[in-house]
Amino acid sequence: MRIGFFDSGIGGITVLHQALRYLPNEDYIFYADTLHNPYGEKSKEEVREYIFNAVDFLAEQGVKALVIACNTATSIAVDDLRQKYDFPILGIEPAVKPAVQSCEGKRKKVLVLATNLTLKEKKFHNLVNSIDQHDIVESLPLPGLVEFAEKFEFREEIVVPYLKEQLSSFNLMQYGTVVLGCTHFPYFEDSIKKIFPEEVEIISGSVGTAKNLRRILEANNQINHGSGDIIFFKSGFPVEDKETLSNYKKLLGMLDMEG
User: Fold this and answer.
1) Selection from 17, 22, 2, 14 nearest residue 66 by Cα
2) Are 156 and 224 contained in the same domain?
3) Which one is catalytic: 3, 182, 192, 239?
4) Which residues fall in the annotated binding site for substrate?
């Protein structure tokens, strides 16, 4: 049985990349809901419908575990999904806790970069309120990065000016950690590093999710000895054209180069 991965688009490949590091012998099925992205700019009700339709499809494929590799989808639906399905469902959320722990001793702030919908959700605010005792967490929506990623636009000469414009009102010297609160954002880590001072740490929740996935499979005695095979779907349709498959593999390769 395969492990299912779901995202609104190609951002979840950054989480899949970490899963392949920690579970290289598993086989995977990756579902990108490209017909309906970006989720972060749509209504909560609309996005919930898309999420449940996608997970229904993945459940029909017989997955043994599912990773919601999308911060927005996790914040909106992960609790309800766990009520409906009997296989393990893992979500991903902005890595606020380690960021706050790292910055408190340095007297620095945390900046969470995410989508509008993630930052508006009660789940995010509850997370911050439970951790941020000294009011050091700030946030900024960057929907343009999602649009760039879905267009495979990663050139720094395009991305860096956008980031500079969006961050123009921020005093970047105040921050100790930047949290990438959208799975599309790790593609742009190098560009983000060019904007912030060198000592600023940039983190995401992908590694923690991959480690948790491995822990759950080990506990359930479900570790597989496959080949790391990946089947890709776009909004319920198998990805068969060579160009798209090549682009997806290039994204995995790009992440490998970034270490």
Assistant:
1) 2
2) no
3) 182
4) 7-8, 39-40, 71-72, 183-184
Instruction: Give the residue numbers spanning the domain of 167.
Output: 96-204
- Asked if residue 195 and residue 154 are part of one domain, the reply reads yes
Whether 196 and 100 share a structural domain: yes
Q: What is the pLDDT of residues 181-204, one digit of tens each?
A: 999 999 999 999 999 999 999 999
CATH number, domain with residue 141? 3.40.50.1860
Total domains, the chain: 2
Binding site as annotated, residues:
7-8, 39-40, 71-72, 183-184
Identify which of 5, 7, 22, 4 has the alpha carbon closest to the alpha carbon of residue 183: 7
Of these residues, 63, 68, 70, 239, which one is catalytic?
A: 70
Active site residue 103: no
One domain, residues 104 and 190: yes
pLDDT per residue as tens digits for the range 114-155: 999 889 988 899 999 999 989 999 999 999 999 999 999 999
Residues 210 and 86 in one domain: yes
Gap between the Cα atoms of 113 and 17, Å rounded = 20
Q: How far apart are CA 39 and CA 25, in angstroms?
A: 31
- Say if pTM beats, i.e. exceeds, 0.85: yes
**Which tokens sit at 62?**
């017989």
